[in-house]
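example protein:
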Amino acid sequence: MDHSRKIAFPKPASSIMVIRDGQGGLEVLMIERAKTMKFAPGAFVFPGGKVDKADMQGWRWQGITTGRSAMRDFPYRVAALRELYEEAGILLTDKSPKRTLANATPFASMVRMAGVKLDILNMVPFAHWVTPEPMPRRFDTHFYLAPHNGDTALHDGNEAISFRWVNPRRILDDWENDRIPLMFPTRLNLMKLARATTVNEALRQARRARVIRTLPVVHMGQAGVKLTIDPATGFGVTAATPKELSVEASGIAKKA
């Protein structure tokens, strides 16, 4: 590994796990990434993305959120809801919009014109992952849990080719049987979520749990790449499998 190379600063990012009670138990909304994507092609992920400058400007959101901009993670919560709307067409607000949503306008302006407030208070911190240091593009990502409001998910047909409401245990079974690819953080977040069977139980468990910053460590040896995390993170797993590394380790190998 090249220790002389400068470590990239992780950019702030957010992701949201929208959950509902389905006929077969707890379900979470996941995106199927296009197989043409350079990173993690075909993988299933949660809606999310980078925190924009506008997300950090508290004055933009005065009067249009259910929480105050003084909250330490306020920009992350706003970013998660914005990304959810942009990627899936779901707008989590305190009530139904009074007007038709004007998609061409900035997100804050659209929310204000719709006469609603972004429901950031019902978002529960769930996990906190930081991209390993050898990666050229790094993100400091906060994951949130939030109950679904009934909006229909609509994919953009570009990066996301489909959305699925999936039972965490079933999608983990699909991963075990090589039917779908998952990244390491995604699998462990699903394992944590699978401890609950209903929305209320999942939210209650998340509120009680301590969120620990998780920074995987990359080990390069004769056997190849190994990715591990501190047992104190509480996921019950401490190392990525070869299947997960095949999805996300190519960037590590190129820069290590």
